[in-house]
Amino acid sequence: MIKFGTGGWRAIIGEDFTKSNLQLLSQGLANRMIQENADEFVIGYDRRFLSEKSAQWMAEVMAGNGIKVYFINKIAPTPMIMFSVKEMKLKYGAAITASHNPADYNGIKIFTEGGRDASAEVTNEIEVEIRKIEVEDIKVMNFDKAVNEEKVVIYNPFNDYIDTIINMTDLKAIKDKQLKILLDPMYGVSKTSLQTILMTARCEVELIHDRHDTLFGGRLPSPSAETLGRLKNNVVEKGFDLGIGTDGDADRLGIIDEKGNFIHPNEIMALLYYYLLKYKKWTGPVVRNLATTHLLDKIAEGFGEECYEVPVGFKHISSKMEETNALIGGESSGGLTIRGHIKGKDGVFAASLLVEMISVTNKHLSKLLDEIHEQFGKFEMAEHGFGFDVEEKERLLKILYTDKKIPEFSFEVERVSYMDGVKVFFKNGGWIIARFSGTEPLLRVFAEMDCMDKAEIVCKEMKEFLGI
Ligand SMILES: O=P(O)(O)OC[C@H]1O[C@H](O)[C@H](O)[C@@H](O)[C@@H]1O
């Protein structure tokens, strides 16, 4: 059963991520493309087990259906593939990746016009199409034959992608500072792009976790305070100005400041929005998902701008950004983009912009964060994930969505929203959300308050109430 989640289709290799399911999905997409007269497609892949092979399998089905495939035959950051969809003005593209999921997963992200994540409507329709397909309907052309007949064309967008980011970044300001930067691609795909950009800007760059390891060193390729431990230690020990970590497919990032503090994606968003408004004098609203810091609302308010809230999933961020001509959009899970760049999140671009910010302001991240907290107050977020089995999920669904019950919290409730999961807004400005992840079998409980103790109190109340 192929089911798309928050960020594409993801499944355990050998269980549901199989050649036959991949071919089914590809045929479903090919059928849709044929109906829409879309006859070209770009595909790239990450560094996971079976990714390259899977990209070839997908290309074989596309070629079998008469669709011309631009095949990126080197590991590619997801944002580079999205960039290719945009630049080549294609209607569709795909990445073989399971992003930040555990090593036994792989998956497919589908992109649509302009280089954005396929919307829920598109992926729902592809799911419906897939259900109609019988095995004998799948058309396949051998990969080598397709290359010989130029149905599959080898394509390399690397230079264009790098140049675009370089042109959007104040390289001169960075060159003057000669920053020392430590990169942690988390065994993923950001190395070549980030290293090239930063070295062009004359930064001194060193790397950790850059070899090919499909087990990701036994850790999740998802940048967090826990997974970036070595980056943190090395930044402090060797006196780097900044540590940059990117997730498995480089669309998200995690940052370690010069003092070794993990800078939460919430703070990265706040820093960049503040920088663009205050130092670059840009204008425009911000878009965040409903599990992302309300510090952004405060910054927007302070500059006479709007902050828009959307459900989790970058496709929602992209649509709202387009609708409101927002300056920046992002999520607490670590992805963001800026107006004028691709519609999807880009860890490589976000990292380059942060380096620019440090150079232009001549302030380290900790100093800039103090500046923000002084003006707009402190916001602390507690984040928890709880596993469950099928029956447990039924029980939780009933409490949260059917009976619409919430705990007796220690803080006065202002309102409750069911936009995505259950979000309770408190009168003191804090909030808590409980929602089922669309990428992992987890109930995510996040809360934000003016201090961590209060955030943890409401999380505990939710946990006890749900009996998890
Ligand atoms: O909380 P989840 O549903 O697991 O989603 C967490 C993240 O997963 C993927 O990376 C999506 O691309 C993001 O848009 C989303 O924020």
UniProtKB/TrEMBL annotation:
Q: What is its EC number?
A: 5.4.2.2
Required cofactor names: Mg(2+)
Q: Give the protein's recorded name.
A: Phosphoglucomutase
Query: Entry's InterPro entries?
Result: A-D-PHexomutase_a/b/a-I, A-D-PHexomutase_a/b/a-I/II/III, A-D-PHexomutase_a/b/a-II, A-D-PHexomutase_a/b/a-III, A-D-PHexomutase_C, A-D-PHexomutase_C_sf, Alpha-D-phosphohexomutase_SF
**Which organism is this protein's natural source?**
Vallitalea guaymasensis
Catalyses which reaction? alpha-D-glucose 1-phosphate = alpha-D-glucose 6-phosphate
What processes in GO biological process is this protein linked to? Answer: carbohydrate metabolic process; purine ribonucleoside salvage
Enumerate the spans annotated as Alpha-D-phosphohexomutase C-terminal domain: 420-456
Q: Which domain of life is it from?
A: Bacteria
